[in-house]
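Treating backbone geometry as a discrete language has practical consequences that deserve illustration. The sequence in question and its structure tokens are set out directly beneath this paragraph.
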Amino acid sequence: MSENAYTPRPEHHFTFGLWTVGNVGRDPFGEPVRSPISPVRIVEKLAELGAYGVNLHDEDLVPREATPQERDRIVREFRDALAKSGLKVPMATTNLFTDPAFRDGAFTSNDARVRRYALQKTMRSMDLGKELGAEVYVFWGGREGTETNAAKDPREAMKWFRDALDFLCEYSIAQGYGYRFALEPKPNEPRGDIYLPTIGHALAFITTLAHPAMVGLNPEVAHDTMAGLDFAHGVAQALDAGKLFHIDLNDQKPGRYDQDFRFGAVDPKGAFFLVKLLEDAKWNGMRHFDAHAYRTEDERGVWDFAAGCMRTYLILKEKAARWNADREIQQLVGALRSRGSDGRAERLTFSKERAEQLKSQPLDLAAIRSEGYAYERLDQLTMEILLGVR
């Protein structure tokens, strides 16, 4: 495979957030280790590395205390940098978690004033996102939750959450923005327990909204992995439902705090099957890296991190193509897909006649019980492709 295949280009749709490469290395136990990188510098460097776009929270670009004049200047300089570099802003979101006002949540705070402030702040951020060309708008409810169930009736919290999303869908429609909204599930951190903790919870909640067609998902590798879930399974369910609007790629050790490691840094096999899923599905969305460099790194290390995320994805994309073309693997897969169905894939659809036929159909249970599935061989062949010996 040519080294060019691993070189990121805009058509690969790789994106980063201002908050990802702009992370200064602060953690709960330590002060920042890197100087802030300006949004303009981030745009220029990501374009140089071959990225497609850059995403942002409102406050990543415009500080909370900025005057209207300062806001206009910052946005103008940022737009000029985008125009010069060719970088796009595909997604925007709102910081509804840093301000102490959001200590009890934003859309689900017990304080109605906070709920109004969250809507006000989000509408202004949606205005900014659309000014920069964003098409997807993400909602991460990092403060939407509790530490004690004595604090809130979760049924009321869901009503408040639903009211907020219905309101903002109507705002997008009224403004002609055409946003697609994407919910980002997470089980915990920074709250003890966060509402809509998994992909399944979010999918169910979307069906209760006034405009369910406008709302989908932005799942993240680390968030499912924190809870010990298989991320590719959740993404597959979102794809099957037509609700994968955006995705956050990173890596994570199960059971730990939200680590946001470089994509593929912890579990290359899991990353491989995720890349294979997205590429086999021909999913046309953004491959967004919501991660950050190790705290050990200086600015050079930040750009090594960004380049590494994209390069790893492209290496795994090539491995997925090799897996799909491998004769022995495909023989095994083909045998599995047609197993027990006379050499063809079978899907059962109901009819009264089919039900009666199925009830009386003889099945060789002795053979079914004794036959293995060759998963050990299939998994070993997968490992050999990943390890570069096949």
Observations:
- The chain has two domains: 3-325, 327-386.
